[in-house]
Amino acid sequence: MRLSPSKVVYSTPPSPVVLVSTVNSEGRKNIAPFGFFMPCSHKPPMIAIGTRKITHTYQYAKEMGEFVVGVPTPKIVKQLYKASKKGKTNDEFKECGLTSVPPKKVKPFRIKECQVNLECRFVNEIDSGDHTIIIGEVVEAECDDDIFDEDKANLRYGLDSIYHVTGHNFVTRDGRKIKL
Questions:
Q1: What range does the domain containing 22 cover?
Q2: Exposed e or buried b for every residue in 74-86, given b needs 16+ CB within 10 A?
Q3: 88 assigned to some structural domain
Q4: For position 91, which CATH number holds?
Q5: Do 84 and 129 contact (CB within 8 A), yes or no?
Q6: Is 1 among the domain residues?
């Protein structure tokens, strides 16, 4: 069967959904989910997210030079989805039912309900079609105690990640469908 190139995003395995926290110079807290996410360097540790330049996430990360990436669990998929549909308030954490936690090395807040939080400094951006890839160096990282293990494989096995299939459809890493 021939596949339209416009469907390539749906013909590849999804990347895990992450929540990205940013803050602007006026202190407005922003939080948004992203399905284009990947680690992209070991030394120094770097991650990348795909976003659009019109988003507050892009604008605040660029303005402040920092952002936080949180790895959510299926337990908070409703809050995660709400973060994609929120209004414009000064504290989007409250609006989405999530808890902001003070960061260690950057200005944007960590997300208490996430199993992993990565504090990042904005390093570079690359235009990529209708998205822009933001690259951040991880300057501080924290994970829940119950998933930590010095063995890299065990740490990854301990993550209970969410994957966005399309629309309202999400699955866990073991293929369980998540209902909103």
A1: 14-178
A2: bebbebbbbbeee
A3: yes
A4: 2.30.110.10
A5: no
A6: no
53 pLDDT above the threshold of 90: yes
Q: Is omega for the bond preceding 74 within 30 degrees of 0, making it cis?
A: no
Residue 82, amino acid? K
Tokens of 169: 């459809």
Model pTM score = 0.91
The token pair at 65 is 């030079």
Count how many residues are written for the chain. 180
Q: How far apart are CA 159 and CA 172, in angstroms?
A: 10
**Alpha helix stretches (DSSP H) within the chain:** 56-64, 77-84, 92-96, 152-158
Tokens 């740490």 belong to residue: 155
DSSP assignments along 34-78, one per residue: ES-EEEEETTTTEEEEEE-TTSHHHHHHHHHSEEEEEE--GGGHH
pLDDT at 87: 66
Give the bridge partners for 2, in sequence order. none
Is 4 within the bounds of a domain?
no
Name the DSSP letter for residue 90: S
Is residue 8 in some structural domain? no
Tally the domains of the chain: 1
